[in-house]
């Protein structure tokens, strides 16, 4: 369970941020700088929402002083994610904070929708980071696997292209299925570029409401539209001197495509409702999980925009095309889980590794990571066993067949064990068939959604795995 710390004396903002959390999150709210430091001393949060004036209390907040303040936080909590809060009068400091290393910023007045979007962006970023740490060497070079150690030739080709293009300012288009690690490669390109000290700004185009896409990308002036009560810099402006990653680029509307094409051609843009030209100084990496050429044929994507984006294309292979790397990925995820969960699980059962090699992996690397994490939480022995993985991972329901019977137990206890196994398998297969949709699964099972959610929690079943594995996307159905 993640722990969030909200540090602001702006009561409406604190309430809005609080409403954006899931019910499973732990939350602490403090209302003064003194309370902030005391709270950090008691417990380190996973994510900190903090007023910029509380982070850096120097008279003139510069990029260097903000960076120093953030480094002081990371000296205490290296993995702390920081979201800066700022009023309209401090918006420059908020942008400086992102350039200094903060993960994102929100401006007052804060809405619950904005806060929820930022949290979702952080979650996506964390998923990207998992394989990124596998791909990159760490500072000391002791715990990470160099790029050259991947075994599959298709990924070696991808990494060779990354090495060649990273140091340039060339626009890159990454194409591949959902969950293949396109976001990871985008971060890797940024990290290996001459812009690595600048910001990396990820934008999931499909997650932004259509009415807000242009505002998010290019910013807006006060009064530009209903609800625009303040001026807001867009992602292109914040990402200046760095990299902007446009994920799911195929989801943007034709009018937004026209605006983006103009920016790519002219290298300048204006905020929504503005008239002043702003130089476009960010390097663009775009990604799509659908064939953009097919969208062009259907009239859903502009051919001239595709030409501008497709300067240096990189096809990211599906996991089933790089099966040689599955053991390395699985071991890396296991190592990461050991560090995070502090459980002494030392290995993976050979039957599980065999199943990994034979499975189709419709959800790709993301599905592998999710399955590993769930099994790790459920496992009580020293090795990840078949019993704690979904049944469709194994041909013919092997895990159930291999459940050992404890003959020291009375028949009633054994019967209860078998009932639990059957019930878990039923829920897993039904929610997979319903593509992760809670309402439909509960209806077909003849139970309430509340009862179903309790069973999902009881058996550690993650509905998002089945959304990805069956539909190819991680939709937002509940």
Task: Using brief descriptors, characterize the structure shown.
478 residues; Rossmann fold; 13% strand; alpha/beta; 21 helices; disordered C terminus; Helicase, Ruva Protein, domain 3; 5-stranded parallel β-sheet; 3 domains
Describe the structure.
- This protein has about 475 residues and is of the alpha/beta class.
- It folds into three domains: about 5-110, Rossmann fold; about 150-315, Rossmann fold, CATH 3.40.50.300; about 325-470, Helicase, Ruva Protein, domain 3 (Orthogonal Bundle), CATH 1.10.8.60.
- The protein is about 45% helix and about 15% strand.
- The chain has 21 helices and 16 strands.
- The protein has helices at about 10-20, 35-40, 50-55, 65-75, 90-100, 110-135, 155-165, 180-190, 215-220, 235-240, 255-265, 290-295, 305-310, 325-340, 350-360, 365-380, 400, 410-435, 440-445, 450-460, 465-470; strands spanning about 5, 25-30, 45-50, 80-85, 105, 170-175, 200-205, 220, 230-235, 245, 270, 280, 285-290, 310-315, 345-350, 385.
- Strand 1 (about 5), helix 1 (about 10-20) and strand 2 form a beta-alpha-beta unit.
- The two termini are about 20 Å apart.
